[in-house]
Design a protein that fits this description.
CATH topology of one domain in chain A: Arc Repressor Mutant, subunit A
Strand order of the largest sheet of chain A: 1-3-2
Order of helices and strands of chain A: HHEHHEEH
Largest interface: A-B, 39 and 39 residues
Largest sheet of chain A: 3 strands, antiparallel
Number of strands of chain A: 3
Strand content of chain A: 5-15%
Radius of gyration of chain A: 17 Å
Distance between the termini of chain A: 37 Å
Shape of chain A: globular
Oligomer: homodimer
Helix content of chain A: 55-70%
CATH architecture of one domain in chain A: Orthogonal Bundle
Chain lengths: 109, 109
DNA sequence: CATTAGCATCACTATATAGCAATATAGTGT
DNA sequence: ACACTATATTGCTATATAGTGATGCTAATG
C-alpha cells in the first residue's frame, strides 16, 4: 500500500505474512529469539510447544523469511532474519494499549 | 514486545490483530477505504465481495477498531479508524519487495 | 400499514490449520 | 553396523472461519 499496488497476487502475499504472525505460538517463538539464536530443543523448553508442532511453526516462519537456520551437527539453530517484525508488533501493541486506555477513560472518566 | 510484556493474554490480543489483516478480502476493504468513507453497497461493488460476507468482514474490522461506522438513514458508512494499518502494510510490502529483489539477484547475479 | 432498500445475522458447507502421536531422516558416538 | 539424539515429516482429529443463501431488522417511502 502507499507506493505499492494491491493487485490480487500482492494481497495474497501480504495476507500470508500477517497470517504467519496471527498465531500466539509463532509470536512466542519470535519473542524467544529476540536476544539470541536458539536450537529447536531450547525453543521447546522455553515455549512449552511440542516438538512436531514447534518444527512446523519454524518451517512456516522460515519459508516466509522471518527466521534463519544454521545447522551444526545434530542441532539446528534458529535466529531472527528480520528485526522489523518488532516494529510490526510495536505498532499493534500501541494500538491495543490505546484501546485499553480509552476503555478505561470510558469506565472512569 | 520491546517495552511490552508478552504474557499469554497479550499474545492472543496481538495475534488477533494480525489475524484480522491476514485475509485478502479485509486488506482489500482497508485499501478501498484509504481515501474516503464508503457505504457497504459501495464497498461491495468496489471489492466484488458478497453482501453477507462483506458485512461479516466489516464486523471483524470494526470490533478490533480498524474501521469506524456512521449510520445515516438506511446507509452505514465505514471509514478507517486508524491509519497506522498502512504502516503495517508498508513494512510487510517492503519485506516482500526485498525478498523479490534478492531472489532476482540469486538468479541473475 | 404495506412495501422496499440497506445492512446484519443465521445456518450451513467447504477448507485450512493447530496440535498430537508415530515414524522418518540425519548426524554422533560406540 | 548399532544405538542414540535432534529435527523433520506424515497421518490424523478437532476447531476455526470464509463464503453463500435465507431470513431478520430497521428506516424511509407511498
Amino acid at each position: 500500500m502507499g507506493r505499492y499496488e494491491l493487485t490480487g497476487e500482492v494481497l495474497e502475499l501480504v495476507a500470508q505474512r500477517f497470517r504467519a504472525l496471527a498465531e500466539p505460538a509463532r509470536l512466542q517463538i519470535i519473542d524467544a529469539l529476540r536476544n539470541r539464536e536458539m536450537t529447536v530443543t531450547e525453543l521447546g523448553s522455553k515455549t512449552g510447544l511440542g516438538q512436531a508442532n514447534l518444527s512446523k511453526h519454524l518451517q512456516i516462519l522460515h519459508n516466509l523469511g522471518f527466521v534463519a537456520r544454521r545447522k551444526t551437527g545434530l542441532f539446528v539453530h534458529y535466529s531472527l532474519a528480520d528485526r522489523r517484525v518488532f516494529q510490526l508488533c510495536e505498532i499493534v501493541c500501541d494500538r491495543i494499549d490505546g484501546e485499553a486506555t480509552s476503555r478505561r477513560r470510558l469506565l472512569a472518566p
